[in-house]
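Continuing the series of single-chain predictions for the mutant panel. This is the parent chain; the variants come on the following pages.
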Amino acid sequence: MPPSLPATINIREPRWDQSTFQGRAKHFFMVTDPRNLLLSGATLEEARRVVEDYRTTPAVLFWQWVNQSFNAIVNYTNRSGDAPITPSQLGTAYVSATTGAVVTALGLKSLTKHLPAIIGRYVPFAAVAAANCINIPLMRQRELKLGIPITDENGKRLGESTAAAQKAIFQVVVSRIGMAAPAMAIPPVIMTMLEKRAFLKRYPYLNAPLQVGLVGLCLVFATPLCCALFPQKSSMPVSSLEPEVQARIQEKDPWLETVYFNKGL
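Parent structure:
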């Protein structure tokens, strides 16, 4: 087993101080050590894997947690319905949503380690899509249990429906995945083509700004377009509601065929 790396080591930089002759000498003695020729391919591959895991997994874990924490707040504040939620229920929803989303993201990352680079670039999109399918329902789980308000076309409240909540959350999940699709599908293709050209090889520091710019450009159009996929005031037939809800509505208005609800964002 190779020794574990210290938590403070910077694997992107030489191990020794490069501002001194001694540090530079130690570095190049290590790099040119002829004993490296005797190392097997398996040993080198293991060393590469250790370095890659060290470099990427903590970063992915941290940023996925940050991202899913932000998403959890967005999902909670843009929920539908007015049922109260206690701090303990909110905490449970937050922990389950962020944990499930982060574990999913890391799991997808581990499955694609040996795939071509272009496929690996789409891991973030798969992670975002899967995380949305977990984060949104868990942060809005109270709606799935108690239902969301449903009204007639004039806004008169008729009760609460879990079937309406299911449809609302499904529409929001589809919209969120749609928002992420262009920003995470188009830039990888463009960046792969650019990285093969001399331009980015000569100016590698432009790589990150280009990616950020492409993602921002995609989001400028994808966000409003995907928010508009479904009406904010969605509707569904009375016949699709729960039997007990249908019965209560029939007592109030036997001719009513459609109910309306706020789907959230």
